[in-house]
Amino acid sequence: MNPVLLFSLCSLIWGSTWFAITFQLGVSSLWSVFYRFLLASVLLASYCCLRTGFPRFSMAQHLRLFFQGACLCGISYWLVYESERYISSGLTAVLSTSVLYFNVIIRRLWLAKPVEAKVVTGGVLGSFGVLLVMLPELTVQSVFDASGKGIVQALIASLVLSIGCVACERNEEDNLPMLPSITLNMLYGSLTVALIALAQGIKPEFSVSSEYICSLIYLAVFGSVGALSSYIVLIRKIGADRAAFIDVVFPVVALCLSSLVEGYEWSLTALSGVAFIAVGNTIALKPKKVELPARVSENQG
């Protein structure tokens, strides 16, 4: 699939998951994340088995996929859920843009990838844009009253997510089959948060309310199977640094949906933020120019 379509799909779906997650808060965040990714992995595994069968992986490959899944589909999601118990979703959205910079640094240290000036420039503009968009939520009192624990959790969530993204890019070098790898990422992510819950003495819990079940299905099918799978494919196509720009787009999508269903009113400041995000994305995601070899004149020599 075209990278532009993948980017758009992730942004649109993840922009809508903000609403679905609010119906999950009555149950422990660890178990909610566990159910979400376990269901997603079962659905993807069923599709893989019906389509081509499920391949065998070596122990070393399983270990790499476990590490990637624990970061990408488990710990990072749990920490984001937990951070919103202490800080506003607006502050969480602003802090999540740190993924952009973590990705650049970790790619450089781990994969020896060059740091591109346009990606950093685009990241700074995009992050400033998110700050402007979320400014109404970030009153002086809300920021200074914010729990340091929530801020730390949000930043660690971004760091862990970034490690998972770069691990995904590293695993691409081994040419692992796409969908089976994603299936195992989700399975291992769900198992990781379940182990964390049991280690903390949190017993399994579930809600049989229609809101919880419907939101869980939506998050598993669209938020995980659809969007997260597309995100992993996008990382393999354009790299973790550029794929992370989704984190500056989907909060805007969420506010667009909020304006339709919750009456959110756009301010000039928020619209200016959208402009900064658009410019930043244009700079960072602009494809590299491919220099064609100079044509040699037929009359030469």
Automatic annotation (TrEMBL):
Residues 4-134, 149-281 form the EamA domain. It is a multi-pass membrane protein. It is found in: Membrane. The keyword Signal does not apply. Keywords: Membrane, Transmembrane, Transmembrane helix. PANTHER family: EAMA DOMAIN-CONTAINING PROTEIN, INNER MEMBRANE TRANSPORTER. Belongs to the EamA transporter family. The lineage of its organism: Bacteria, Pseudomonadati, Pseudomonadota, Gammaproteobacteria, Oceanospirillales. It comes from Endozoicomonas montiporae CL-33. One of its GO terms (cellular component) is membrane. This is EamA domain-containing protein. The keyword Metal-binding does not apply. Pfam families: EamA. The chain crosses the membrane at residues 29-50, 62-80, 86-106, 118-138, 150-167, 179-200, 212-234, 243-260, 266-285. It comes from the Bacteria.
